[in-house]
């Protein structure tokens, strides 16, 4: 650590009322070290796996129905650009300071320790509950093959949880390998669908020429005007959540200075290929007026319908299996992201110390077990009553992905400003985000628009749905409460640019 960094650490501790270790985690005990075994291919597929999920395989049909083909393409394109800028912002910080569970660390170092505390716990909550939703979704998928008369649905959820915990408990390489193959299957599916869809549209398969006629029927290409585009815009944001997992995994990358930039650089082209091209092909094959697009399950997945138009009779079962893999992939990533975030919070003194402990394979086993327990408890709320508690949990977690993105944008803006203010050379950055400060500011503005827009359906209903409005913004309320409580208790302040800590100590 340089002399300047030592001074910064001392000033930080004096000014912000908490030990310097809250900003720079120096692990001296082998029991508290993570293993750096993730390769470039792992990080690349983790980024892909974060973007391809049920949002593309199922919800894309609903998006086309609500906004029309033009509205869907415009909305997903804008969100894609926002995610690109967010990934470049995250890539700059993660390549220079690779830490596992990075968002809260960057928020603490470059904004305010209270901001990092709130970011960390919100991100952990989001993924813990997401695992529970994937367990419930997996149960529904399995019931399409095996009825509840033959096997209770909760058995499938339990088996999925065992698989997810197993992948994460073996080693970080086990998680990386599992996610690599899960993501590869999803990638191949999308590529095959796009190719087959083009052949079907041209009349080579299926015996009917579709062309682009569906882009001009009825109100197409834009349906329901501005509100239609806005609705799809909000949905598209949720579809892309998970791309930031590259930042979480950076702390366990074998060579973060090279691996992280490579993964980040490919994100935009993946979004362009996998989402934009897939939605374009779906729009060619299925008119937005087709009621099947609003079905919301695997039997009415636009991918299933597209393959059926090619004459592929078994498409329903194949897509059922792929969506099950998608669910397993999302649960696998969620368990990983939540456990590593909790581990980092514990190392920064923002969570109980027991969650710092790791096993001989470098796995934060207690953080993993606690995350699995919360996921189980969240899942159980879906089995009792009218699922009221479960629905509120979902609403609380759904917006936290946008809060994490907002945190990335703010942290990167402050990171770069502090970096320059301290007289550091931009050429020393392993990866530099382009178009600063436009990128983080653009991403910040879009995140705020999406977050504010969450309750628009509640405000537009007659009478106003106040319960729905509160539920839509519950995640923001939780974040604010966490921020204010920690700030008051610890008496933290916004970190001055000249005192931001750039120590590259790895965890």
Automatic annotation (TrEMBL):
It is a multi-pass membrane protein. Residues 42-494 form the Amino acid permease/ SLC12A domain. It is found in: Membrane. InterPro entries: AA-permease/SLC12A_dom, Amino_acid_permease_CS, APC_YAT. It holds the Pfam family AA_permease. The chain crosses the membrane at residues 43-61, 73-98, 110-133, 153-171, 183-205, 225-246, 267-288, 321-343, 363-384, 390-415, 435-454, 466-486. Its main location: membrane. Keywords: Amino-acid transport, Membrane, Transmembrane, Transmembrane helix, Transport. PANTHER family: AMINO ACID PERMEASE, GENERAL AMINO-ACID PERMEASE GAP1. This is Amino acid permease/ SLC12A domain-containing protein. The lineage of its organism: Eukaryota, Fungi, Fungi incertae sedis, Zoopagomycota, Entomophthoromycotina.
